[in-house]
Design brief:
The chain is about 75% helix and about 0% strand. The chain is built from 31 helices and 2 strands. It has a two-stranded antiparallel ribbon with strand order 1-2. The protein is globular and about 100 Å long. It starts with 6 loop residues before the first helix and ends in an 11-residue tail after the last helix. It comes from Coilia grayii (Gray's grenadier anchovy). This is RING-type E3 ubiquitin transferase. It is found in: Membrane. It catalyses: S-ubiquitinyl-[E2 ubiquitin-conjugating enzyme]-L-cysteine + [acceptor protein]-L-lysine = [E2 ubiquitin-conjugating enzyme]-L-cysteine + N(6)-ubiquitinyl-[acceptor protein]-L-lysine.
């Protein structure tokens, strides 16, 4: 192998690589154009064409497809449409799997089971007539006893036939003719029965959900065209076709059904006043479509059209589940969010008129924010219910669904339960959630305004003149303060302890300890009995096997039979005291009073503590209550944490307490030093560098002076540092990732101050200081010495940071290209002179050293 490649070899390799790159570039450009351009643009144009409401739009659709107007906006809207159709397709497939594995509703399978029983009886009748093993039926056995004379005559005729040969031949011919006639009649009857049975079985076995599982071996690379083939063009055509079909079936038809109904009923003005005409009209169309489907299903059941009945039933289930999902995930949180806003108007000195104006100005944003608040409220309410289940006796919260139950499947409930039960559950949920909001928000606000008139309203106005300072601090609060409070504050354990203490107190006061927490003695005895039963060898109970249905009846039926064999799950017996309903009423009253007091404390104590602490820093100026509440919550958390630690150390003696205080004091000092460096200096330098490189050159003109706000720069730097740390942990292994992982593994208790300063803080701070100081020295120290004009000095001072960033990026790109060229050079050399793993041409020095070795010809 030569030490240097000839120029023609390098040029030929470059031309080959460039040709391959161009070919791949054209292919991937075609892929991107097809999936990111043709598919969304086609979906958007077809969507607009269908919802324009004119015949001319259908005629001009081919020309609209080729139009270049609003390409970017139509592509973005088309991506949203394609996403919706893809989600609809995935939901249909998932719902199909739910119906197959969980079983169809009873009303859908009832007629099929009845038809199956009739067909089974028809199939069992010939077998019963033949008897087991082909034996004759009992009637055939009793016949000889009833008619003995006829049997004797037959025997005499047989004896005569045995003596006369001619008579034997005639009898044989007659017997063959009779047998042939009987066989023909049996075949005709069997064919008719088989056709009838096959027809019935086809009607029963036909399943509208058994779709063909096509393209099982299709991969994402082959589907999207990333494997280099052009098969993806066929997939693009099918995706466009499916998008059109889904838009037509799931959007166009329901919308126009609802539109005609709304116009016919005269509700068009009310629907237009809602600012969500399309959504409401489509939902009305789906409701009418569901009613039509269930009516047609009933008619198909009356006329015994099994296939039509099955298909209509499945379509009704799809529409029903879709509507229930919209109600559960969309409507219910929206109602909760609006009710929370209405009950908290006095807390922010607002009125319904203000909410009406905000809704008219931005209806979509207003509805989304209220929905988001409602979802957060529902989530935390469900989390609190799960915490209550850990404390209370199983069976106390029987009226609430257990989300941790492995057998709980909301989709199966939507499929099987009737509409009136879902409607009743929805009304009860609205009443319960609304009552809790009244109890824990509206009533405490009224009491605070009566007792402390000057405490409310909260100050939530963005009044600061500093650009994006409020937004940055809110992001800092949501990204740093609250996660630290929730993750490191043992809040859940404290809340669980408070709930347990309140439950024990209320149980002993009202003699409901057995009802709320159960009897400890009984629980221990039951646990021992259960352990003894588990240690015993299993018994073969054949009686229980009869309760389990066969496989043919479906997995869902077997699962339900196994589930209900052992009686109700999640229930413990309790002692029922005298006047039990009266005691339950007192328990509910005590619970309401406790929730009211807790809400009063949560609404006043953190804000009051935060205002008092912030007053030492900001004076009499008003601050956003989000910051005062966060500061107060953190102070309350530190106080509670200190009290709990002291209570845990007190039984161990004074010496242990002093050792713990010394240990924790040292740990706090180390944590403060690390916090100042990692959470103070590094974010401040990072935020200031971001301002100088990105924000100031884009926002401030050359004839203006940029202003820097250290507090704002630090807040934005915290967010940037958090993002950089997350990207570093997700990236490849290098020294910064190793150091961050080591610091995270050590934790606060085993914090290593020397390691953090030497390995993390010092390198990062050095790089940031160099990035800030070197351009500053060049712009303000070296440039004026060169004798340039003041305008040029200002230009250099303002543009040196982004210029140096551009230089660094170009150097990185050049370094990467040099490495790629070296790899290409080695690749060309190996392709030309390397055969497998054996060198064809050797160096001179290598041949001299190995001259004693015999030369073997290369193996082909």
């Amino acid at each position: 192998m030569p030490s240097r490649l000839p120029v023609q070899d390098i040029f030929a390799g470059l031309v080959t690589s460039v040709g391959t790159a161009i070919r791949y570039w054209f292919h991937y450009t075609l892929v991107a154009f097809a999936w990111l351009g043709v598919v969304p643009l086609t979906a958007c144009r077809i969507y607009k064409c269908l919802f324009t409401g004119s015949v001319s739009s259908l005629l001009t659709l081919p020309l609209d497809m080729l139009s270049t107007e609003n390409l970017l906006a139509d592509c973005l809207q088309g991506c949203f449409v394609v996403t919706c159709t893809l989600c609809a397709f995935i939901s249909l497939v998932w719902l199909r799997e739910q119906i197959i594995h969980g079983g169809a509703p009873q009303w859908l399978e009832h007629n099929l089971q009845a038809a199956g029983n009739m067909a089974a009886q028809a199939n069992e009748a010939p077998a019963a007539a033949a008897g087991p093993g082909g034996e004759p039926p009992p009637q055939a056995e009793a016949a000889p006893a009833e008619h003995p004379p006829e049997e004797e005559e037959d025997e005499e005729e047989e004896e005569r036939a045995a003596d006369d040969p001619e008579q034997q031949e005639e009898a044989a011919d007659d017997l063959e003719a009779d047998n042939e006639e009987e066989e023909e009649e049996d075949e005709e009857a069997g064919a008719e029965d088989a056709e009838a049975n096959n027809g019935g079985q086809d009607d029963m076995n036909w399943n509208a959900l058994e779709w063909d599982r096509a393209a099982e071996e299709l991969t994402w690379e082959r589907m999207l065209g990333l494997d280099g083939s052009l098969v993806f063009l066929e997939h693009v055509f099918w995706v466009v076709s499916l998008n059109t079909l889904f838009i037509l079936v799931f959007a166009f038809c329901p919308y126009h059904i609802g539109h005609f109904s709304v116009v016919g009923l005269g509700f068009e003005e009310y629907v237009q006043a809602s600012h969500f005409e399309g959504l409401i009209t489509t939902i009305v169309g789906y409701i009418l479509l569901a009613m039509t489907l269930i009516l047609c299903h009933g008619l198909a059941a009356l006329v015994r059209f099994q296939r039509s009945r099955r298909l209509l039933g499945v379509c009704y289930i799809v529409v029903k589940v879709s509507l229930l999902v919209v109600v559960e995930i969309g409507v219910f949180p929206l109602i909760c969010g609006w009710w929370l806003d209405i009950c908290s108007l006095e807390m922010f000195d607002a009125s319904l008129k203000d909410r009406e104006l905000s809704f008219k100005s931005a209806p979509g944003t207003t509805m989304f924010l209220h929905w988001l608040v409602g979802m957060v409220y529902v989530f935390y309410f469900a989390s609190f219910i799960l915490l209550l289940r850990e404390v209370l006796r199983p069976g106390v919260l029987w009226f609430l669904r257990n989300l941790n139950d492995p057998d709980f499947n909301p989709v199966q409930e939507m499929i099987h339960l009737p509409i009136y039960r879902h409607l009743r559950r929805f009304i009860l949920s609205v009443v319960v959630f609304g009552s809790i909001v009244l109890l824990m928000l509206w009533l405490p606000i009224r009491m605070i305004k009566l007792i402390l008139p000057s405490f409310l309203p909260y100050n939530v106005m963005l009044y600061s003149d500093a650009p994006v300072s409020e937004l940055s601090l809110e992001l800092l609060l949501l990204q740093v303060v609250l996660p630290a409070l929730l993750e490191q504050g043992h809040t859940r354990q404290w809340l669980k302890g408070l709930v347990r203490a309140w439950t024990v107190t209320a149980g002993y006061l009202l003699d409901l300890h057995s009802y709320l927490l159960g009897d400890q003695e009984e629980n221990e005895a039951n646990q021992q009995a259960a352990n003894n039963n588990n240690n015993q060898p299993p018994r073969n109970n054949n009686n229980n096997l009869n309760a389990i249905p066969v496989v043919g009846e479906g997995l869902h039926a077997a699962h339900q039979a196994i589930l209900h064999q052992g009686g109700p799950v999640g229930f413990q017996p309790y002692h029922r005291p005298l006047r039990f309903p009266f005691r339950i009423g007192l328990l509910i009253a005590l619970m309401c009073i406790t929730l009211l007091v807790a809400s009063l404390v949560c609404l006043t104590l953190p804000v009051f503590a935060g205002r008092w602490l912030m007053s030492f820093w900001t004076g009499s100026s008003k601050i956003h209550e989000l910051y005062t509440a966060a500061c107060g919550l953190y102070v309350c958390w530190l106080s509670i944490r200190g009290i709990t630690l002291l209570l845990a150390w007190m039984p161990q003696g004074r010496r242990v307490i002093l050792l713990k205080v010394q240990e924790w004091s040292l740990m706090i000092v180390k944590s403060v030093v690390v916090a100042v460096l990692v959470a103070g200096v590094i974010p401040l330098l990072l935020g200031l560098l971001f301002q100088l490189v990105i924000v100031a050159p884009l926002r401030v003109q050359l004839d203006q002076t940029p202003l820097f706000y250290p507090w704002q720069d630090w807040a934005l730097g915290v967010l940037h540092a958090k993002i950089i740390a997350a990207i570093t942990l997700m990236g490849p292994q290098w020294w910064l990732k190793t150091v961050i992982e080591q610091v995270y593994a050590n934790g606060i208790r085993n914090i290593d101050l020397h390691f953090i300063i030497r390995k993390l803080a010092a390198p990062v701070i050095s790089v940031l200081l160099l990035s800030l100081s070197v351009p500053y020295v060049i712009a303000f120290g070296i440039t004026p010495l060169l004798g340039v004009t003041p305008e040029m000095c200002v230009l250099v001072q303002r543009r040196i940071y982004p210029f140096l960033l551009m230089v660094l990026v170009l150097l990185g790109i050049l370094t990467f290209q040099v490495r790629q060229f070296k790899r290409l050079y080695e690749h060309i050399k190996n392709d030309k002179y390397l055969v497998g793993q054996r060198l064809v041409n050797y160096e001179r020095n290598a041949s001299r050293v190995s001259g004693a070795m015999p030369d073997f010809p290369p193996q082909e």
